[in-house]
Specification:
single chain; 328 residues; alpha/beta; Rossmann fold; 2 domains; nine-stranded mixed β-sheet; 14 strands; binds flavin-adenine dinucleotide
Amino acid sequence: MSGPVVVCTISGQHAEASEEVGGALTLGRRIAAQRGVELQWLVLGGGSDAAVDTARAQGVASIHRVSDAKVGRGKSDAIVEAVAQFCVATAPGVVVLPLDFDTRPLGARVAGRIGAAVVMNAAAVSDSGGRLEVTAGGYGGDTRGVYVVAEDTPCVVGLIAGVVQPETVDGGGEPAVHDVAVDLSAVDERIRVVQAASFEGPRLEDADIVVAGGRGLGAQENFKLVEQLAEVLGGIAAASRPLVDEGWIDSSRQVGLTGKITRPTLYLAAGISGATQHMVGCTGAKTIVAINTDPTAAIFRYARYGIVGDCVEILPELIRASKEKLQR
Ligand SMILES: Cc1cc2nc3c(=O)[nH]c(=O)nc-3n(C[C@H](O)[C@H](O)[C@H](O)COP(=O)(O)OP(=O)(O)OC[C@H]3O[C@@H](n4cnc5c(N)ncnc54)[C@H](O)[C@@H]3O)c2cc1C
C-alpha cells in the first residue's frame, strides 16, 4: 500500500489561490485517485485563508501547515529539513513540488534526504499499476522522456509550474487542517538572499491577450511596437528569452521553459522562431498568430494564423488597424 500524495508549496511564493497551485493539486488528486490514497497539501510558511477554499475545490483531504519562523521564501535549508521531517512522519508515495527559480534546487535535496527517486521538469504524471509514470522534459526541453518509477519507491516530482490546468471538484469535503511541528533548531541557513526578485503589475499567467516579440524585431527600439500593440489590444507585452538576456524586457515577461507559462485567448508572436523551449510556455493559448519572414519557421506549425513578412512593417499596420477598429 503506497502512502499519500503530498503537494508541497511555499507561502508567499506560491499564491494559494493561483492557477499553478490549483494545477499541482489537480495533478496530485488524479494520482491519488488512481492509487486509492489521500491527497495532502503541505503548506510551508503557514498559508492564507485562501488555502482552505482552494483545498476544498481541489478535493484535498488535509492541509498541513508549517508555521515555524525559519521557514519561508528563500530559506532553502529550513524548507528541505521541514519537508524531510514531514515525509519521514507521513511516508508519502509521491511528493509534488511546483517548480520555479527557488524550488528547482530543492527537489533533489528532499529526495536525497528521504531516500526517494526524483524526476524534475515533469509535464504529466500518472499511475500505471502501482508504478509512477512521469513524462518530463530533457536536454533543456528539446525532448521528452517517460520515466517509470519502481513499485513501492517514493518519488519527488518537480512539476513545470502552470503545465497542468486546474480542474475543481464538485462537493469537495471540508479539508482537515493540521499544524505541523518541526524541529529546525539545528538549521543555520547557508545561503542568504541579498536581493529578492520583485515585479509589480499584471502577470503573464493571467493574461487574456499576449503580444510577444522575438529576435526578429532586430533592434531594441522596435520592441516598443510590441508594447504598443499589446496596449491597444488591452494585453501584455512579452518576449522570447534572447530579448530578456539582452535586457530589453524584465525576466517576468519571458515566455517558455525557463520563463512563464501563459494560456491567453490570443498569443501574437512577432519575430519568434518557435523553438521548443519557447513554445512550452504558450502552446496552451487558444489562438496563436505568428509573424515571421521565414515561411518554414517552426512557429507556423503551432499558429492558427500566420503572416509571412517583416514584423517591423506589419506591427505598425496592426496597431493602426486595431485602433481604427476599437474607435468604431
Ligand atoms: C535550457 C534552455 C532553456 C530555454 N528557455 C527558453 C525560454 O524559456 N524561452 C525562450 O523563448 N527561449 C528559451 N530558450 C532559448 C530557445 O532555445 C531559443 O533560442 C529562443 O526561443 C529563440 O528566440 P527567438 O525565436 O526570439 O530568436 P531566433 O531563434 O533567433 O528566431 C528569430 C526569428 O525571427 C524571424 N525573423 C527575422 N527577422 C524577422 C523580421 N524582420 N520579421 C519577422 N520575423 C523575422 C526569423 O526567421 C526567426 O524565425 C532556452 C534554451 C535552452 C537551452
